[in-house]
Amino acid sequence: MRNRATTSLNKPKIRQSWSKYNLYNLSRIRPPHFGQRTFFQQKWASKSMARDYHGEQVPEKKWQRMFSPRMRSVVPMSSFEMAKDDGSSQSAGRGSGLDKKPGAPDTLEKFIRSRRVPYTQMTFAPLERRLDTAIFRAMFASSARQARQFVVHGAVTVNGKPMRYPGYLLNPGDMFQVEPERVMYATGAPKDRNERRQTRAARKEKAAAKEAEEAAEEAASTEEAKDETKGEAKEEAAVETESPRETLTALLAQAKNIMSRSKDVLPAKRKQELRGFQKAVRRILSRSGSSTVLTTNLEEQFAELTTLLKAKRAEKPSDSKAKEENGENSEEATAEKPSTENSASEDVAGKAPENSPITTQLAEAFRQATQNPEQDVDASELTDHEFEVLRRALIQMRDNPIDSTKPYATPWRPREYMSAFAMIPRYLEVNHNICAAVYLRHPVARPGWTEVPSPFGEATHTPAFLWYLRRR
Amino acid sequence: MFKWLNAQGSEFKHHTPGETNYLSKLDPKLNEKNANGILEKPFPLNLSFRSEPILSEDLRNEIYNRVVRMQRSVRGVSVELGVDMRRVAAVVRLVELENKMKEQGKSLAIPYARAIHEMVPTTPLYDDAREYRSNPHENINDLPVHRLTDPQIFYPVSESRQFNRIDAGRAFSGAPALLHRDAARMAAEPDETIRRITQGDFRQIETVGKGEDEQQVLLPADARIPHPHLIANDRNRISHGMTEPGLVRTKYYKRLDQEMEVDQKRKERAQQRRERTIHKVQPENSRFEFRFRDAVVSAQTTGANGRGSQAPGHRYGVPSYDRKKGQVKIPTRVKV
């Protein structure tokens, strides 16, 4: 639902927000043409337009006190060119007709001279120091207002200490962190009506189960235990009737379904698939008898799964397996979705080049699984690719589980229209895994570029800057 | 609005991994990609803002590896990987925190991080070390523009004079020109001159002006960039890089080690100074440590009229405006 107070469609105002209404407004703005308007009117119109975006949550008086006419900028230097010349060749012959002709920019220095520094774009740079704005810029919240709420509600720490002031001005080197759960909520897709209903049902069921359990405990505990064992035995019997080969093919098909990333597959459908896969894996693993497998790391879980299903690799030479696998992984990583793989590799470490210890561990597990003499000979053969698919599906299931207790749609996916606003300015160094960022330095302008993200160009910022110079 | 969202706007609903998905896509004039094949202007009206790449997960881990496991200096890693020194330090802090959180079994936002790295341009971990020089993450030698250099000044110099960056700094800060023999001595060994400034005592820098107007003479750009040692290295490369590349490399590493040593010493000295001024008391069986610092009455703290706000304690005739309306109580710094 649109917030009518802040997001007007009649008089479009651009806000620091990722909402689709804001995106629509952003797509409609045109460069201002002031025509016959007086200078005062131009300045007024520009500053109100810019202020609707920059620190709209900050009172005007407060901003006026923050404003500074001095703007930070840097010039990129080339050490090679500074080594070639101590500056005297630039100063020599000035005014005596020895100036070089302006030509194509071949050196860094000439390139710098050919581009202007967009100074007035830095008008609102002091606002970027605010904690709430920095949280929004680090993409931890979907709007500056939400970032402010996170701070006020105590979900943000600065240098490890809770900070409840959204107006706290970050100093260079400050590290701020938002609770990852809040960030997942802010940036994740919301639950739809069905999911909300499911959540309610799950909650009720849980409450009912708890009550029933308590009642049962009071009545008689012995009978209960009997029933349970019976039920388990029944289930196991049912599972064992399936042949491992069939189970494996079914599992693989499910895994492939999950991993195929097509946009037209409805989220609900995908979720069903995921749930089915999860169930299947759990069912198979439950046969192993050791409950630790479910809780310990993914590699063990995967190895257990392969041994249980009596799966086997298609390739025979076992010593070159690790290498092959690595090679294939990297190929896939480059071909399919590089960034996903990279981030997945971070904590699963299956993808990292050969020096990663867990890869060898995994390879070892494979080797044991394949060379185990007790295994049946008719075990189904899997190609590397199929193994990979299975593994990746498991990883995704572990990292991004279905959990109805979460306030966002699970498995987590980015909210719609988020990518149009996705950018991280250079003055922040962000670690998204832990939702923490470091404010490295104050934003600066450099020849041709500014570091203050703003939807408006110089045509708006220059009159706005002049307005705040207080020489109206 | 919904007509637009369902037609043109539908492109922005979901992202394609590895590509940016910005509004400027719709404008045929702006729909141009940079050298890395990435659309980098998020705002169609603001052409002077671009979405710059962030460090990829692999590059981040590499930085951490080099600094923490291989014990390289932050300065050296910054030059090797083309990443700003402050960023290198921040990466180390963040990865350290991440490891700590993992150890504690806290939940991380992994699917979220993955999605962000798909949407935003990233700098990959290059296999070839030369790539870091030709295509670095950012420029590591940024020179901050000093306030003194804002005005344009007309400064006549005789033709016989070599007017270099040291002289320019003096001219900007209104200091008298160097004596000819000093200038010649400095020009003869430029590396040593700059090294003496950057590694020496900052209080030794010459000042101009009197009383309140006293300020340090603006240093040459060679001393104000983050990596002055790179200029020395490039000078060596130009003079004898073709004939003796080994020697150049040895000199570079020697200088790096020396820089690290100086940084270390500086840090230690600062630590000692801090410890000298603070008296720490930890009572037995107490969780707390009490730190006392002597109240100093000087021009820096109480000021000339004794009313300065820096000095601690209540002073006669100096009211505390603490409880007055409009006093901002937001902390200005959080100590680590």
How would you state the average pLDDT of chain B, rounded? 91
Strand content of chain A: 5-15%
The number of helices of chain B is 12
Estimated helix fraction of chain B: 40-55%
User: Using DSSP, what is the number of strands of chain A?
Assistant: 10
Order of helices and strands of chain A: HHHEHHHHHEEEHHHHHHHEHHHEHEEEEH
* CATH class annotation of the domain at 20-71 and 120-188 and 418-470 in chain A: Alpha Beta
What does this structure look like?
The complex is a heterodimer of chains A (472) and B (336). Chain A is α+β, with helices and mostly antiparallel strands and 472 residues long. Among the domains of chain A are: 20-71 and 120-188 and 418-470, Roll (Structural Genomics Hypothetical 15.5 Kd Protein In mrcA-pckA Intergenic Region, Chain A), CATH 3.10.290; 249-286; 360-399, no CATH class. Helices cover 51% and strands 6% of the residues of chain A. Chain A has 20 helices and ten strands. Chain A has a five-stranded antiparallel sheet. In chain A, α12 packs across α19 (384-399), α15 runs parallel beside α18 (357-371) and α16 packs across α18. The two termini of chain A are 40 Å apart. Among the domains of chain B are: 54-134; 145-225, no CATH class; 227-294, no CATH class. Chain B has twelve helices and seven strands. In chain B, a hairpin with a 6-residue loop joins β4 (207-208) and β5. In chain B, α2 (57-69) crosses α4 (85-103). The longest helix of chain B has 33 residues, at 245-277. Chain B starts with a helix and ends in a 43-residue tail after the last strand. The model of chain B has no long low-confidence stretch (mean pLDDT 91). At the A-B interface, α1, β1, α4, β4 and α9 of A face β1, α2, α4, α5 and β3 of B.
